[in-house]
Amino acid sequence: AQGSLGFMYANGRGVPQDDAEAVRWYQLAAEQGYARAQFSLGFMYSSGEGVPQDDAEAVRWYRLAAEQGVADAQGNLGSMYGNGRGVPQDYVEAHMWANLATAQSSGEDRDRWVKNRENNAAKMTAEQIAEAQRRARQWNEAHPR
Q1: d(Cα 51, Cα 117) in Å, to the nearest integer?
Q2: Residue 65 near residue 95 (C-beta atoms within 8 A)
Q3: What is the pLDDT of residue 81?
Q4: Cα-to-chain-centroid distance, residue 71
Q5: What is this structure's pTM?
Q6: How confident is the model at residue 102 (pLDDT cuts 50, 70, 90)?
Q7: Closest C-alpha among 29, 106, 72 to residue 80
Q8: What is the pLDDT of residue 33?
Q9: Do the beta carbons of residue 19 and residue 50 sit within 8 Å?
Q10: Helix, strand, or coil (residue 48)
């Protein structure tokens, strides 16, 4: 319910739109391990909505949600690695997370993660791409669905 209230405040659904109030509710839900709220909180920190913009804090929340299998969080975490936002730039990690997001997405979301993965791959060696693929397989084995 806390995550849903965060969504309601973030989008002005039934309540006045209020990013700071959305963050408050997302934070409560995220601290209890609710993955979608962790993703949403990461987004709020990444974009500076309702909180001061903080890439490192965005990465922290994206990672928690990504580790629970939230595709959008995986893709956004990959973007953070690819752009060196909140973490040192690392194309192998960027490719791995984009790969994981791609595997469980469809439509425009999947297209976005494929493009992100391809952009990273263009800057990588064949060995780095193989390592990213190995890490994605290893992650999938450790996190069966």
Answers
A1: 29
A2: no
A3: 98
A4: 7
A5: 0.94
A6: very high
A7: 72
A8: 97
A9: yes
A10: coil
pLDDT above 90 covers a percentage of the chain that reads 99
CB-CB neighbours of 59 under 10 Å: 21
Q: Other CB atoms closer than 10 Å to residue 109's CB: what's the count?
A: 15
**C-alpha dist (Å) from residue 78 to 36, 45, 65, 117, 138:** 17, 16, 13, 8, 16
Q: Residue 99's CB: how many other CB atoms inside 10 A?
A: 26
In which band, very low, low, confident or very high, does the pLDDT at 144 lie, cut at 50, 70 and 90?
Answer: confident
Please tell me the distance from the alpha carbon of residue 110 to that of residue 58, in angstroms, as a whole number: 22
Q: Compute the distance between CA of residue 126 and CA of residue 145 in angstroms, rounded to an integer.
A: 29
CA distances from 105 to 25, 33, 123 (A): 27, 22, 24
